[in-house]
Amino acid sequence: MKSSPLDLNRFYFRGDSSGCLLIHGLTGTPGEMRFLGERLHGAGFTVSGILLAGHRTTVEDLKTKKWQDWYQSVKEGYEELRASCKTIFVSGISMGALLAFLLAYETKSDVAALASLSTGFFFDGWNTHAWQRMMLPFVIHTPLMWIDKAATFALAHEIGGDALLEVLVEDTHTCYLGDRSQRHDWGYGCGTCPACRLRADGFAKWMSTR
Predict the structure, then answer these.
(1) Angstrom distance (rounded) from CA 177 to CA 98
(2) 152 and 108 assigned to the same domain
(3) Do residues 87 and 40 share a domain?
(4) Crossing angle of helices 149-171/194-209, nearest 10°?
(5) Strand, coil or helix: 184
(6) Which of 26, 52, 74, 154 sits 20 to 30 Å CA-CA off 92?
(7) pLDDT in tens, 37-90
(8) 157: part of which helix (H) or strand (E)?
(9) Which distant-in-sequence residues (6+ apart) come within 8 Å of 39 by Cβ?
(10) How far is CA 76 from the centre of its chain?
(11) Are 133 and 151 in the same domain?
């Protein structure tokens, strides 16, 4: 089941009756979700890393595809998992996360949980044509994307006091390894991955200003 980090192919790892559908991003490949897939399979899950229509072929082929074609790939992957799994979890990165949101919305309670990674909610002007920049005033504002972890802890405490801070620590999770066996002052996690270090440093910085 282990593979080279450069393995870009679609993957399907058979596990138990809980299935995870992993969706790569625009112009990406299943390879960008493979590490996560291998970790999930190691925990016992059945994992499907799908390939979106028009990807891993040619630029010309990709140009002929629309978001509906990519979403069709997602639905086919979902139906394949549902045929052998009782519980379905979905995760996507970037544009794949938006497709995951749509799948969760359409299937309602049939998706047990959704994890979105680096979701693109707005145009930022990067690599966009002039006519697309006209859309920039019409965005979904996501202020948490522009503040660091220390400011996030500070904002939670400012809005809801100790009660909301406890929710942030107890019920949110960013550890790359999915470790919830250890609770720290800043929340659960392995304590060593980049996400945990970032969160721990942010908490320490906020505490130093109180």
Answers:
(1) 23
(2) no
(3) yes
(4) 110
(5) strand
(6) 154
(7) 999 999 999 999 999 999 988 888 888 999 999 999 999 999 999 999 999 999
(8) helix 149-171
(9) 177, 178
(10) 19
(11) no
Q: Is the Cβ–Cβ distance between 148 and 125 less than 8 Å?
A: no
Same domain (yes/no): 31, 101: yes
End of a domain among 87, 121, 138?
138
Tokens coding 67: 């978001």
**Among 45, 110, 105, residue whose Cα is nearest residue 79:** 110
> Would residue 1 count as lying in a domain?
no
Kindly give the pairing relationship between strand 46-49 and strand 18-23.
parallel
Among residues 117, 116, 113, the alpha carbon closest in space to that of 20 is found at 113
Question: Which domain covers residue 35, as residue numbers?
Answer: 11-138
**Which residues have CB under 8 Å from 138's CB, separation 6+?**
none
Residues 164 and 119 placed together within one structural domain of the fold = no
Domains in the chain: how many in total?
2
Residue 129 near residue 143, CB atoms below 8 Å: no
- Cα–Cα distance between 11 and 23 in angstroms, integer? 11
